[in-house]
Amino acid sequence: MLHYLPIMEHPVIETHQLSKFYGKVRGIENLEMCIREGEIFGFIGPNGAGKSTTIRILLNLIFPTSGTAKIMGMDAIRDTRKIKAEIGYLPSDASPYPAMKVDEFLRYCLRYYSGRSGAERIHELCSWFELDERRNIAELSVGNRKKVAIVQSLIHRPRLLILDEPTTGLDPLMQARFFELLQQENEHGLTIFFSSHVLSEVQKFCRRGAIIRDG
Question: How far apart are CA 71 and CA 60, in angstroms?
Fold first, then answer.
């Protein structure tokens, strides 16, 4: 049985008439969304619906054509450095640096967060996923590389975690362990934005959700 953190009224993600066009091609149009603190919020739609475009705008990886987006009350463009210090992000096509060992890569990533967490946190998360910290990333399977990316998104104990098709590449056992970990992190205050095209995942894991299609 899932146990949810009580929802607070403070919005963590807000968008207002958010739109993105690539020339004449619509990415998203007039997106209105509000995710509150403590939520596990599902964002579901078929491939090409605009989910990744929305996430990239929230992360200030691309600029919107019009509209606004706020993260934890801060402007997604103007305050992007402050925002990125407080969020974790797992892209669908995560690709850790293959020339590094697992622990070397994770320690390198921690430097971007002023060492907010450390070796103990890395070891804890790697043990959870049965991931050998001493292995070279180039030697890992697709599933194990995905585990490295998951750990990287959580090592600094973010306030908000943004997941884009996070279970791709994980076997069923590791998917179950992944959801169990996210549940524990949510109970400790983590807000989770869970983007997926798999309806059963959103139905099982999320309390609320939004459906997007054709932007």
Answer: 11
What per-residue confidence (pLDDT) applies to 79? Answer: 97
Q: Measure the CA–CA gap between 118 and 61, rounded to whole angstroms.
A: 27
- Containing 108, the helix (H) or strand (E) segment is helix 102-110
Measured between its terminal Cα atoms, the distance across the chain in Å is 34
User: Is the distance from CB of 96 to CB of 137 less than 8 angstroms?
Assistant: yes
Query: Whole-prediction pTM value?
Result: 0.91
Q: How many angstroms separate the CA atoms of 105 and 115, rounded?
A: 13
Convert the pLDDT of each residue in 82-133 to its tens digit: 999 999 999 988 888 888 999 999 999 988 887 666 888 999 999 999 999 9
Run of H or E residues at 54:
helix 51-58
Task: Determine the Cα–Cα distance for residues 41 and 70; give it in Å rounded to an integer.
Answer: 16
pLDDT at 118: 81
Contact predicate 185/4, CB 8 Å:
no
Contacts of 178 (CB under 8 A, 6+ apart): 129, 150, 166, 167, 170
pLDDT at position 115 is: 61
* Beta carbons within 10 angstroms of residue 11's beta carbon: 17
> How far, in Å, CA of 146 to CA of 92, rounded?
9
